Amino acid sequence: MGEMLGLTENAGDYESWLNEVKDALASINMPFEGWQGIWAYDFRQEFDGGTKANEAALKANKFWWHEQNKAIGQDCQKTPNCWLPRDHRGECQRM
Question: Taking the CB of residue 73, how many other CB atoms lie within 10 A of it?
Answer without folding.
Answer: 7
